[in-house]
Every structure is written in structure tokens, then in C-alpha cells.
Amino acid sequence: MDYHFQQPHILHYNLTVERQLPGEMAFTLAYAGSRGLNLMQVTDGNPVVPEILPDGRKFWPVGAPRVNPNWGTYQFYTAGGNSWYNALQFSVLKRMSRGLQFQSSYTWSKTMDEPQGQFQGDGTLADPSDRKYDRGLAEFDVAHNWRFNAMYRVPQMARAGNVLVTLLNGWGLSGILSLQTGYPTVQRLVNNRSRSGVLGGANPIDRPDLVPGVKVADITQGVSRGCGTGPGAIPAGTPLGTPERWFDPCAFTLQAPGFLGNAGRNIVRGPGLANLDFSLTKGTPLRFLGESGQLEFRAEFFNILNRVSFSDPGIGTGAATANPIFAGAAPVGVAENPLPTAGQITATRTNARQIQFALKLLF
Question: What number is the average pLDDT over the span 318-344?
């Protein structure tokens, strides 16, 4: 633990405008933000010392010493992280009137941070001497998030006759619609290609280079540019944005050994979420149980459309063991096929359609 460990804390600030509308409605427009300070991080307490090349880049040669050559590596828990959150929030609320009630809430936000130690797999600095290298979208960032819920009480259809009243009256409908963009994912190399030796180099935290000319927006859309040779090659024209190949591994390439990759942290987003839950209710008065006596029947349908919401893709892009190909004195590429699992999705975020029935006796 850092002997001078600072207390993590967060600052919140917001500005909200509310307005009442006709028809028992109201809307809210708000800006909300927060600033996290002294967030917990895990780093190497005795990092390998890199060389600084004339062009300013850091280079870790083979066998470079640590800050204290008499010691090996050790995990160092400190409070050096930061976070930034900014959001535009909009909501519309209609109170119950004429049997209808609904609420719609939309948030457009962005969460930036440096690796935080409380999240599995994303809490270690790739470069212990430069937090800014790992500054990027937080792994829990959701750019667009919309929720809509509604309840509707069906008007009475019969006013006389015990059988008709029992069958036709007391029905209600409700539902919840959820739509949101996917979470950011980080593309990592399996091995410590930079030779930074962070925490012994056992954890895959190095990132690759982006292929020159590749735009981040094109990594998950369109078709692959193709790369590799032999059975493990990815053919040009392979569709992207699918469970078989969510992002294009060919958009990344291995940097020369001893260097950090230039690909940003969490630049690729996984699949979004779309889900609809629905319920149907029927209330039947039971006067012999008192004025409020009632038998309530409920039928609830979770993910009623049975839509698949895929989880995040595999994050490893390459084994990072190949040597660079040289043309004269300059490296021109690296001969290594992407990992077979790169960009593949093997799990779902939500369950398949589920239906449940319930009876409730009120008295």
C-alpha cells in the first residue's frame, strides 16, 4: 500500500430545468457531471526503466534494470487515478390519468477515466510512469441510454352482469423498453511485447498499434481489410459487426518489440442492448373479503421478443511473439496471424424469453 495513500473522493455538480406540461405531464432537462479524484490504482512499485529515444519515444531494451535493481516487481496500491463524467439527461413523465401513465428517460453521456483498481482486468497501468497513456473511455461508459416504461388500465367494458364484469373488467398492461449502446472493450496482446515488465509481464496489458489510415469508427462496421496467411488468415471482405467477427483484428498490427502500441484504451465498443419486458394483469373483486378484497392474476414476459443481446467480444488480438519484417533498417510490418478468438462473441448479455404467472390474493 502507498504510505501516502489519499482518500478517494468524487465531486458532483448538476443543473436541472423542470417544466409542467398539459395533460398531467412534466419534462426535465438536466446536465450532470462528476469528477473522481484519488481513485485506486494498481501499478508496478519497482518498474523497469526505459530508454528515451531522440524522438521522445520510450524503449525497453532486453535486460533493462528496474528502478531498484536489488528488488523484483511488486504490486503497488495507490490512489492516483482520475475520472470525468458529463451527461445530458432528458425525461418526460405522465402521471396516471385516463388510465395511462408513462415515463421516458434518455441520457447522452461520456465517462473517461484512468485504469481503476476496483475493476477486474482494467486496473493496471501499462506505463507506470505515465497515467495519460491509459486515459480513455471507462469500461462502464454508456454513450446512449434510453428507458421507457408505461402502464395502461383498460377501461371498463361491462357495467352489468356478473359474468361480463368478471371477464371483461380489471385488465391492465405494462411494459419496460430498454435501449443502450455497448460498453467499451480494450484490445490487448497476449504477451508483454513492450518488455516493460509490469508486474512481471504476466498480465496482458500491452496494446497493439493501429494500422495506418484506420479510423476507429471503421473497426466494427463494413468489412475486414484482410490479413494473415495460411489457415488462420482473415479473408478480405469478411463482414464485421457480427458474432463471428465483431471487430476487425486486421485493423491492428504488432509494434516493434520494446515499444508500447499506439492504439488507445477502450476504443472499440461491444454490442448494444435492446430488451422489452411486458406484463398483463387482471384484477377480480372479491367482496366477501372486504372492500379491498381482490384476486389478481399476472402474466409477465421478460424479453418478450426473444431478442439476443450479445456480450462483449474476445479482446485478445495477437500472441505478440512475431518479429518485425525489415526493409533495410526500417520495420515494415509483422508476420503474425490474429488470434482465432479475436472479435468473436461466445456469450449473451440477457436471458432468452422467460414467462411467469402469478396469483395474488388481496384482503
Answer: 58
